[in-house]
Design brief:
Elements (H helix, E strand, L loop, with lengths): L4 H6 L11 H10 L7 E5 L5 H10 L2 E6 L2 H13 L6 E5 L11 E7 L8 H9 L2 E14 L6 H6 L11 H10 L2 E8 L2 H21 L6 H22 E10 L1
Parallel strand pairs: 1-2, 1-4, 2-3, 4-5
Antiparallel strand pairs: 5-7, 6-7
Helix pairs in contact: 2-3, 8-9
Bound molecules: S-adenosyl-L-homocysteine (SAH).
The site of S-adenosyl-L-homocysteine has 20 residues, from strand 2.
């Protein structure tokens, strides 16, 4: 059981698999006013950067679940590197339906809301692990500017315009689900560059080392087309943020 291999090729060198920079991830950790010993659950924890750095900086304890074997291994190595391996645990597996044994203070899903079948379903899933009064974190894209045609959405690798909302609508949708938005940290275009452009050098190096791999043609094609596609579409049209929610 694992994620499609293309992601483990293009994102193998990423510590953060989303458009937040290390600075913004730290800003988010500080913004939440985490207390030492606070428990944080992270569904789709990737390479574990959020839990590991917050354990180091704020003394939280964390549990991460991720479907990628590679990313989960990298998360465990990162925990050792930062000296927090006794405080964070990473499990390889499907997070769909995952509920923590012990209630947590913060329940997060940052850039992986398909795990619960969309934002509403993911909030409902996270709620099952959350202590009363706890905080839910959702990392999700929104339209910086609403695309004028479906072709623009497709250029952003989004199926349809209706898949995402513009920011005020996204914030309103949390209210409609019964939540206050109590904090948010938004990515910017330079953060998008760190997430997307970092894939290009990784792809280039991977191609040099794996010229005969069955994925080489696909990776070659992506490396050729991605910089222009990204600059024309994703970088201009797509926003991305982490939203902190508390039951109203
Ligand atoms: N939250 C991390 C990773 C975001 S990328 C970060 O921001 O850095 C999306 C992550 O979801 C990837 O790590 C991928 O492996 C993971 N993922 C995809 N489907 C999953 C599933 N069903 N269960 C758990 N993790 C999943």
């Amino acid at each position: 059981m694992d994620i499609p291999r293309i992601f483990t090729i293009t994102e193998s060198a990423h510590r953060i698999h989303n458009p937040l920079t290390p600075d913004k991830l730290a800003t988010l950790g500080a913004a939440l006013r985490l207390k030492t010993g606070a428990r944080v659950l992270d569904l789709g924890s990737g390479s574990g950067e959020m839990l590991c750095t917050w354990a180091r900086d704020h003394g939280i304890t964390g549990l991460g679940v991720d479907l990628s074997r590679l990313f989960t291994e990298q998360a465990k190595l990162r925990a050792e590197e930062l000296g927090v391996a006794d405080r964070v645990e990473f499990i390889h597996g499907d997070a769909a339906g995952f509920v923590a044994d012990q209630k947590v203070d913060v329940a997060a899903c940052v850039g992986a809301t398909w795990i619960g079948g969309g934002v509403a379903g993911t909030i409902a899933l996270l709620e099952k692990s959350l202590r009363p009064g706890g905080i839910i974190l959702i990392g999700e894209p929104y339209w910086r500017q609403a695309p004028s045609t479906q072709d623009v959405a497709k250029g952003c690798l989004v199926e349809s315009i209706s898949e995402y909302l513009i920011l005020p609508e996204l914030l309103a949708s949390f209210g409609e689900l019964g939540y206050d938005v109590v904090e948010m940290v938004l990515a910017d275009q330079e953060g998008w560059d760190r997430y997307e452009a970092a894939k290009w050098l990784t792809m280039r190096r991977w191609l040099e080392n794996n010229p005969n791999d069955e994925m080489a043609t696909e990776v070659r094609a992506q490396l050729t087309s991605e910089p222009m596609r990204f600059a024309r579409y994703t970088r201009e049209y797509l926003g991305w943020g982490v939203f902190a929610l508390m039951v109203r």
